[in-house]
Amino acid sequence: MSPRLANIPRKYCLLITGFVFLSFSLSANVQAQVATGEIDTKTSRVYTFVGKTGFGHEHAVIGEIKAGSLNLGARSNAGKIVFDMTTWKADTAEARKYIGLKGATSASTQKDVNANMLGSSVLNVRKYPTATFEITSAVPVKQNAPTGKSFYQLDGKFTLHGVTRNQRLIAEVTEKKHQNHVRTSFTIKQTHFGITPYSKAFGAVGITDELKIYGELDIAR
How many domains, the chain? Predict the structure, then answer.
């Protein structure tokens, strides 16, 4: 016992100790509640498959999540995901492996592709540095799934390049120790968001209007 507590009656010492323990427990509980549903931006990633037209090339793009949360089971106000469009990078080794594209892309080609993708004629990240998915609901759906996996239907509004459209997708959820791993995918058309697909040489080289987007998210339980 510390010198300061030596002269305090035992019953008061027990009360003080109990109060400190209760305060610590309540604080930890509040922190856990706040963290529930929060997306781990360090480990979560988004990948995009970009198809080709004419003599163009297929591309794999990786991007980061800036912030967000997803409350699985919520029928309203289920969360929001903010995509950091300034981090989008084309044809990294990780992105190509995830999408399933063979071979590698030279540093100079990556630089050119990124400049076109992030520039004012396509994503225009200076004007639109983020995209968002406002999730209205995240309700469970019945699926024939392996043990430990469940599925949720996510409905909400996806905003890209300043344009907002309704979006529905199915998410596969796997339970981990302290997190839920959420895997999902959906397709969009660039023209639906006011983006003109990149092309050159009068259309002889270009990319497809449709993009396939994959999400790999870790969410606190």
Answer: 2
Same domain as 168, residue 136: yes
Per-residue pLDDT of the chain (221 residues; tens, 9 = 90+): 555 545 656 555 554 445 444 444 434 443 444 358 999 999 999 999 999 998 789 999 999 999 999 999 999 999 999 999 999 999 999 999 999 999 999 999 999 999 999 999 999 999 999 999 999 999 999 876 667 789 999 999 999 999 999 999 999 999 988 899 999 999 999 999 999 998 887 667 789 999 999 999 999 98
Give the global pTM.
Answer: 0.82
Kindly state whether residues 160 and 199 are assigned to the same domain.
Answer: yes
Q: Is the dihedral of CA 158, 169, 134, 41 positive or negative?
A: negative
Q: What domain range includes position 17?
A: 1-35
Pairing of strands 45-54, 163-175: unpaired
**Positive/negative CA dihedral, 114, 116, 120, 123:** negative
